[in-house]
Amino acid sequence: MDSRELGFPGYMIYCGLIGSLTSLSIGYVIGAPNVPEKSIRGIDGDCGPNPYTKEGGFPNCFEFADLLWGFAVGSFCLGALVGGLSGGIVQNIYGRRKTMLISNIFFILGALLLGLTYHQAQFIVGRIIIGFACGLGGVVAPSYLGEISTIKGRGAMGTMYQLLIVCGILLSNLIGLGLSHPPKWRIILAINGLPALIQLFLLPSLVESPRWLVSNNFIQEGRDALQKLRGSSANIEHEFSDMVQLLLGHSSAASTSSNISGKGDSAYEESKQKIDPEIAIPASSAGTPHNYSISHLFTSECKGLAVIGILIHFFQQATGINGLIYYSTTFLGNVFGSGNSKYITVGVSCCNLLATLASVFLVDRTGRRTLLLLSAAGVAASSILLVIGAYTDVGVLVVVSVFLYTAFFAIGMGPIPWLLLSEMLPTYALSPASAVATAVNWGTNFVIGLVFPSLNKGLGNGTFILFAGITLVGFFYIWYFVPETKARSIEDIMAEKGVAPRSDYK
After folding, report:
1. DSSP states of 238-297 as a string?
2. Cβ distance 45 to 182 under 8 Å?
3. Bigger pLDDT: 262 vs 11
């Protein structure tokens, strides 16, 4: 069977699940400080009868002013910004598997620092280090998922990244319900490193991305990796030829395609000898994977598609979703009391998970662009309803609005931005574009995490009217500029936008 017609080969799903453990770690990091916030800060007696004293050799809680706590929670985004910007270079040089290995090391180191926190400064340093791991993982995991996927399975595989983030957030909230008191809140933070430890041991069982291998001129290795991902009975010749043409140029693809014509392995071996990076990728073209820099990206034919993907990442965070995730226990506590707000927060996380599962089902049926439009419109409307409920003191409307807000975000604006770039850009342009998009994502995330406590203190739930306005701008941007990528190859989307294969660059 032609591999281009395959849906979900078993080994591909396995690689996707193990690769997505990175996003489980990211989700856990995002949600971990939410439920135990008052225990960590010693607010409202949640630190016990003797706050700010040592238990078992460690302080049982720490004094954080609102702005300092906002910085401490959001500081991991600064690390993620650095990790995101460097992630493109790292994954281009070392490959996807080794980059995941590096991010795992930082996840484990950051988790140890947080679990053994002795001072506010150490807490912040731990969040920054684990944030670097999030940024690096936020570049490599979506890239890997997109590059190993079949055309028909790409939507579901791409949304798997966001699904595991949501699972991580829910897991941190559930664990937080039982451990949100000193000194057990330290266990919540230390568990940050557990998914990374599991992935660390399982990484040797994954194949490297075939697209990365081909783009680095490891032709036979790329072919073998693709065959393993598609299954031994699949015919990968046409898919592999398309991949080589996109990444190395027409001459290399023509040589590779001779195997399709029935000339056997000897013809393929001959083609492999012909593929020389100096010939297939001229100096005037996009450059090799290692030197295709961020600055080169924005002067190349790929810049238009890259900008679309990067701006969608900005709008994802500008919805204010992580303000909700970081501080839902606090601002819902203003309406329902701190005891009830913890359980509502867990309910919101469950809603997030269910809606993300729905997105996995819908993304390859409804289409990416349609879900993005529905999601943006729903988030904006829910934000307005939340503000109305808050100002009219209708608690039920506030809760319904929060659940609707979360559900609408999860079906589109949550998973699809991580999917789009890998569907629109070839491997050589994907890494720098992913680096910038991830940095923009985490940078916006940091700003929202930093200012949200102060905004919430000054404006209350009226803060969400600001997010509603920005989300509406995002809706119209999606309407006019974002292409539909459902069931289309990268080669097809690039051709529609007038972006030629590498050997055609002038």
Report:
1. HHHHHHHHHHH-HHHHHHHHTIIIIIHHHHHHHHHHH--HHHHS-TTSS--TTT--HHHH
2. no
3. 11
